[in-house]
Model the fold of this input.
Amino acid sequence: MGAVQTRTTWQTATLVGISNETGSAKTFRLRLHQPTPHLAGQHYVIRLTAPDGYTASRSYSIASAPDGSPELDFTVERLDEGEVSTFLHDVAQPGDDLEVRGPIGGWFVWEGTTPVLLVGGGSGVVPLMAMLRLARRTGQADLVRLVVSVRSPDHLYYADELPGPETTVVYTRHKPPGMARPVGRLTATDLPRAIDRAATAYVCGSTGFADRATDLLLDAGIPATAIRVERFGPTGTT
Done:
């Protein structure tokens, strides 16, 4: 793996676009004033500062593929108890400036040149989408297999872009009409039938989902050393 870019100082980014993903999630596009190249899988910290000096910050994975652009996408789920997510959803408008720090992370990253098996639960698809986008942009989609588990079609991020021969969507509560697979949790049969033994597996989701997905991958013969996991808690988002 090449050198990992990490920026440890804060900088200003301007919010240039907001788009809806689901009823509770939006994608926020930020233009960095001091762009730093990133790798698929890295994240940024977004910090808010109140007039009295109180600060709140939260880490959000980059959803966009590395392409040299100063603009980055972050898909954020609105959480009632989340100070940063509620501000972004309810208050922030295009043209606003935000404090950000990143890119951060050197373990849960992919450079786009080796086979990968991606397994995401709910909003855990965000950093994996950056990897899928990178593969598609560079003509390396054959290196990627992505399995996403969500409650229902209404909870699926990137619904118009995600489907393709590289992707499988598993619905745990409600499924779209005509889908043969019954609703239910992720199982071994949802993983690719022929898993490339040279592949690295990336798992992202809640702690419970990540633990279950990891067990399935181990049972499928993926070595523990080839599994990279990123978890978020019940009050967090990725």
Notes: The chain is about 15% helix and 35% strand. The longest strand covers residues 11-20. The longest helix spans residues 125-137. The helical segments are 83-90, 125-137, 207-219.
